[in-house]
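Quick one, T. Sequence first:
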Amino acid sequence: MQNGEMLMRTNAICSAIVISAAFLGTTLILTPAKSSDDIISLDIAKAMATPDAQANMDGSVKFYFGNAPHPTVVKQLGEGITNKKANGVGRNSTKGCDRAFLNGLIQLQQRAKDLGGNAVININSYYKKIEVVSNTTVECHSGLLMDGVALKGEIVTINP
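Structure tokens:
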């Protein structure tokens, strides 16, 4: 192979690499991507009405979110904190958020039962230990790979 011919091939290869890199870069810039941490307000009533939630919540523990009124507390039993994640790859964020929220409720339900409680009151979002109070929504942090819901509440015994 002659030097001139080798130089032409090298230039052609370099040009192909530059064009491919430019195309790939443009594609990556133009393709909408999920941000690293979107905050989604998850509707509590909707999430608790899903068939999955209905199948996993046995009714022995009542849940009161935010500063919602609740029956008289007979006994304080402790605190419950959850930090649940769900796979967010290739799925609708709402489904991942619903799953993470449900897993948190299941954990709070089990903690209440373990402590002899029948309710969890003052349940608030608690992502990165920042408490957000709401009677109707919880925060779900939806990232590129995972959706997460953190909850904090008081485990109690209430009058039925």
